[in-house]
Prior knowledge:
- The complex is a heterodimer.
- By secondary structure, chain A is mainly alpha-helical.
- Chain A is built from 12 helices and no strands.
- Chain A has one domain (3-27, 64-275): MetI-like (MetI-like fold, Orthogonal Bundle).
- Helix content of chain B is 37%, strand content 25%.
- Chain B contains 10 helices and 10 strands.
- Chain B has a 6-stranded mixed beta sheet, with helices on both faces. A 4-stranded antiparallel beta sheet of chain B has the order 2-1-4-5.
- The longest helix of chain B is centred in the C-terminal third of the chain and has 18 residues, at 179-196.
- Residues 253-260 of chain B have low confidence and may be disordered.
- Chain A binds chain B through residues 166-168, 170-178, 186, 189-190, 276, and chain B through 51, 54, 56, 80-81, 83-84, 87-88, 90, 92, 95-100, 109-110, 113-114, 145, 156, 159, 163.
Amino acid sequence: MSALSRFLRTPEAVAGAFLLAALFAMALSAPLLFPGDPQAIAGPALLPPFQAWSLPLGTDRLGRDVLAELFHGARTSLAVGLAAAAAALAVGAVIGTLAGFAGGLVDEVLMRITDAFQTVPAFLLALAFVSVVGPSLGVVVVAIALGTWTGPARVARAEVLSIRERDYVASARAVGMHPLAIAFREVLPNALPPVLALSSVIVAAAILTEAALSFLGLGDPNRVTWGGMIAEGRTVLRTAPFLSVVPGIALVLTVLGVYLAGEGIVEATAVRRGLS
Amino acid sequence: MTLLTVSNLTKRYRRGGKAVAAVDDVSFHIDPGETLALAGPSGSGKSTIARLVMRLIEPDAGGVEFEGDDFLALRGAALRARRARLQMVFQDPLAAFNPRATVARVLDDPLRIHGIASRTERPHRIATLLERVGLTAGLAPRAIHEISGGQRQRVAIARAIATKPSLIVLDEAVSALDVSVRGQILELLLDLQRQEQIAYLFISHDLGVVRAVAHRVILLDAGRIAESGDARAVIDAPRSAIGKALVAAAPRLHTKRDAG
């Protein structure tokens, strides 16, 4: 049975994949369905949902189209979540591989640096970084990656410690391969599966951290973000709760989708690795 | 001139706070084109010696002289370049290859690393190497896990001879193969030795195989040399206790001799 058919037989995984597909569709169609600035005023302020055909989810305090903001917010969430997770996984895998493969002093230094990053709560680190450097999309990505690369680094190191004792690493040395080539061509690709298994959790956490940062006003001010929308709606929570609830639900479904689909992929591929 | 001279080689491991000598004051030499067998029970230090000679691990004491140079003094790029002359074939033909590799990539590595053939020339060289070890060139794009154990060991031998070495360390290279394949691989090794004057450090626990392919044999016991000499003479009439025990443990030898 192929990994794909195993994936499709798991209802949670399929549900997650649907949520993710919907999210990607929103993100990709946003500039087509809602051309122009989603932060522009589109109608009367605080219009409740399902009142006007042109503004199905109503408007916020300034009269901006909530549906347009939601679609454009999906772009930010996805972009930041995926970019931050990719950066964290890449940095973590490289540092973990170097530490595990080199051993000795290099290992010691790299792992103490990892400890230092792990001791500081990831969110505080991101908060401090963005407040110092200033909010922009790139900075938010770096800020989130800064607090999340340690997990992949530890997993990669543990895996490399076992792989470096295998015969094929010895035979690569015997052939005369450069140690860096051995680390990145022979060892790293084989250490990746358990590291990649972390990716769903990391993407989900990155999306939440991005939302939290923009809720606190530390997101890119030129982009619509779900966290920012929730923060906007907070001031009128009693009179217009939908302004916070709608982006909140979007956030929950996104994180759920990422997590379920990610777990589904890990489960489906783990069986194959176990058998071979 | 001797090809490889090993003198007073010692390697200790710490187990439970006290040092255990895996290899204890071992000295031997190998001449060009000669097969020297290292035999002994498990734990006698055979594989440790192989890894010490290959510089996969570092000795605690002793010297290794290879092609007239102090092999232990080589570092970094000089060591990697010299490794072309000293290759190794491992026991488990599956574990010795990157699980993601293809046959072509395995054979491409030594040719690329040691600058033996240009990028355009390499596919041709890989095909020649495969044919040299009795495989078809069509095997090149296959993944290592797709081919049989005997084919894998032939690929391992092709990788070892790609850099035209003067010495190949065969660490139980035929022990994991079934009997019919084992004979073919041994034939291939002897054939390569005759044609290219390659010397072998042949590590095995199977005295029958040792008697068939080795010129000289060293019997090891607990990291020390128990007995050494002409392979046939030693195995036909062992003098050391461990030699007698090893020969007694392989009853096939006697039947073969009685019949012949």
